[in-house]
Design goal:
Blueprint: E1 2-9, E2 12-17, E3 22-28, E4 34-38, E5 43-49, E6 57-62, E7 65-74, E8 80-85, E9 89-94, E10 99-104, E11 107-116, E12 121-127, H1 138-152
Antiparallel strand pairs: 1-2, 1-12, 2-3, 3-4, 4-5, 5-6, 6-7, 7-8, 8-9, 9-10, 10-11, 11-12
């Protein structure tokens, strides 16, 4: 089981393991892109957010090629995302916007849980090792960007 902490700080996110070691940084870049960087600063993925969409929609790119789209399925009743691409078919679902199940092919792959901290939200991600990929921590970023204000609120 892979366990990570995702902590938003303003418009940046840090991803660390349970021992507090930095694994990834997620921060904004040029042209509205948000970059996922490994601990050494190498850019792995970037995402864009469609601001004109009625519900949040995020596109994930690897080497300037769209890998998949994460589209919000509902903001209030059974909130979540559908992540679809050529090789990716993942649903992220919740009933309370605090615990999200990561589902793929009818199986639960992992969870993202919101921990209410004093001023900032903090997320814990648990996922089976066989399903883990570098883009998986972005699920917590999608949750924060879509539901963060509602959860603080």
């Amino acid at each position: 089981m892979v366990q990570l902490n995702i902590i938003p700080k303003g418009n940046k996110f840090t991803v660390s393991d349970l021992k507090g070691r930095l694994i990834y940084n997620i921060k904004p870049g040029m042209g509205g892109k948000i970059h996922l960087l490994d601990a050494s600063g190498y850019k792995l993925y970037y995402i864009t957010a469609e601001k004109k969409a009625k519900k949040p929609v995020f596109k994930i790119f690897l080497h300037d090629k769209e890998l998949f789209t994460a589209e919000c399925t509902s903001m209030f009743l059974d909130p979540g995302f559908a992540m679809r691409g050529e090789t990716i078919n993942i649903d992220v679902t919740s009933h309370d916007r605090h615990e999200f199940k990561i589902m793929g092919s009818g199986n639960q792959m992992g969870t993202v849980t919101l921990l209410d901290e004093e001023k900032e939200n903090k997320y814990t991600l648990e996922i089976n090792e066989k399903y883990f990929d570098d883009y998986i921590p972005l699920i917590a970023v999608f949750i924060e960007m879509a539901f963060g204000k509602i959860n603080k609120g």
